[in-house]
Amino acid sequence: MAAHTSLQSLAGIEIPFSPLITAALTLAKDRLESWGYNHICRSLYFGFAIADRMPDLQSRDKELHAIAVILHDLGWDHTGEFVSPDKRFEVDGAEAARTWVREQIKLQPELAADWDEHRLQRLWDAIALHTTPSIAWYKEEEVKATQLGIFADFAGPEGMAMFGFELKAGEWASVCAEYPRSGFKDGVVGMMCGFCRSKPHTTWDTFMGDFGDEMKVEGYERKGKRFADLVLHMAA
């Protein structure tokens, strides 16, 4: 399982093929732990299943959608190359993905016609905002579709239905059978707690800080560093 560098149809969910999508899968497989690679593949299928049913997402750039999902967790790069000491992992992923596409353009100049700065910026936005649905859902189609698929891998069919999005139980089962969830929960918790230890200043105003609080990460404290603390203690 999860050894693919191209994606077949699962439960009727079709993922587009392009050489750049295949290259992105290879990069993700090389830089992520197996549980992380499985997560991006599940998120891709779930995102296409959901978005392909939504009238307002029919004109999205499907190649861009696919590449954004595939590369969205480069900020978890186990080699450390894409992990900065001072940025949120979402920004690390966005920066790494945009830089990687630019490198592919240098290697294959014919790609330049398809990847102008606006398209590259949409790729950056889709990745940087993938943990912020309250913004991503009101951005461009590719940004929303990227976030929905990633969110679905945490929420499941019932959770998505609560927000008005359809992911069928059979689709969930087929995708999870192909890309198993083993190690996913522990991997995410470990990653988030790791960021609370290694670069805590990137977590104080994010959901990552919740892991630092709930898991009682040693030495982690964000009280006094939150925006609410700033407002509550500023002069009237």
**Major sheet characteristics:** none
H-E order: HHHHHHHHHHH
Shape: globular
Q: What gap, in angstroms, lies between the N and C termini? A: 59 Å
Domain HD: 37-135
Protein name: HD domain-containing protein
Q: What are the SSEs and their pairings?
A:
Blueprint: H1 19-31, H2 34-51, H3 62-70, H4 89-107, H5 117-128, H6 133-136, H7 141-162, H8 169-178, H9 184-198, H10 208-214, H11 227-233
Describe the protein's architecture and organization.
Residues 37-135 form the HD domain. The chain is mainly alpha-helical and 236 residues long. It has helices spanning 19-31, 34-51, 62-70, 89-107, 117-128, 133-136, 141-162, 169-178, 184-198, 208-214, 227-233. It has two domains: 19-181, Hypothetical protein af1432 (Orthogonal Bundle); 183-236, no CATH class. Helices cover 58% and strands 0% of the residues. The longest helix has 22 residues, at 141-162. The termini are far apart. Mean pLDDT is 95; it is low at 1-5.
